[in-house]
Amino acid sequence: MCTTCGCGAADTRIEGEVRFRSLSAHGPAGYLGLGRGVTGSRPTDAAPARRVSIEQDILAENDRHAAANRRRFAERGILALNLLSSPGSGKTTLLVRTLEALRDRLPMAVVEGDQQTSLDAERIRATGVPAIQINTGKGCHLDAAMVGRAVARLAPAEASLLLIENVGNLVCPAAFDLGEAHKVVVLSVTEGEDKPLKYPDMFRAADLLLLSKWDLLPYVAFDPERALSYARQVHPGLPAIRVSAVTGEGFGAWLAWIEQGWGRRRAGQPPTGFIRKL
Amino acid sequence: MHELALAQEVIRIIEKAARDQAFSRVRTVRLEIGRFAAAEPEALRFCFEVAAREGVAGGARLEILELPGAGWCPGCADTVPLESAWDACPRCGGRQVRVTGGTEMRVKELEVD
Q: Do B113 and A35 touch (CB under 8 A)?
């Protein structure tokens, strides 16, 4: 961890790698600040400043890595999905059931993102599907460079399905393109139905909404119609499927959605919209 | 709190410009942040100060220009201004508006020595 401010990106670790990269806020080791004396005194502002036009997206570097990932996925016929939600929405359980249902039908691999532990990757590997864990340390989201490195290590098969489980967080991961074909946002019925309005960026960025833990609906005050109307307020036409990883409800539609996307990818066709709505 | 990651990217862009265009100190950094962008200006300010410390932009003034929100209304077949990202079309009341402007996050320009 960076000792100056506590920023944690330098903590990022990918399983099997000693160190991923140093992204400290304070520049590479041995870096000396410019334009300042040892006492922190600065040159006078009396001279007119020079104006330098930059006009560059702040996330341009991430977007470059994302474009490279996307190109690599397309070349190898890999369908990559980025799964997003708040912590505790049941993403990993959903993922495990999805893998169990599809493992005899198509090749798959999983990238797991969490701040700490490799518990999720271990749960995935127990299904027989290869998985790699990224620990972001203090970082609150996966970025495209991390995923590029992890995928190079994981080496998913040609024409496979790559599932990327992002760090549980409805805020930051929305801003970071990983090179995926689709973002899938998971909202469980044990959460507030107003989350789409509270975290609109995530629901706007997603191509599919999964309403998870559907089996618990009789026991909670969650109003699915209201949740959907909020979601479609921020993202008109957002397709949605209700799912339960316990009863298997909705898995037919969810697996069909995946297989349709996978089929298109294998055929070299671009990702497309959805076939049916909730 | 991805503002630190954003601030680090801003610094990376500035450090590269400093190498390419041979300046040693940045007085002012101007960012354009859209109204609906995934960045909180106050958090970004705080993180920028931390991330800039020790570098060429240490102590620089950060100016954040907010860009307005806009969306494409299929009903009006036109671009319309938006106050919030989930507003109905201010002209026809339609709910199918797609956000097209206001999500920008850009380093616009620098004042340097």
A: yes
Asked whether A83 and A166 are in contact (CB, 8 A), the reply is yes
Dihedral angle of Cα B26, B32, B38, B44, to the nearest 10 degrees: 30
The count of other CB atoms within 10 Å of the CB of residue B94 is 15
For chain A, domain boundaries: 77-266
pLDDT tens digits for B47-69? 999 999 989 999 999 999 999 99
Looking at domain A77-266, does it have CATH number 2.40.10.10? no
A142 interaction partners in chain B (CB closer than 8 Å)? none
| Mutate which: A24, A58, A138, A146, vs B, most B CBs within 10 A | A58
DSSP string, B31-73: EEEETTSS--HHHHHHHHHHHHTTSTTTT-EEEEEEEPEEEEE
ipTM of the complex: 0.87
**Domains along chain B?**
3-112 (3.30.2320.80)
Tokens of A226: 């209201």
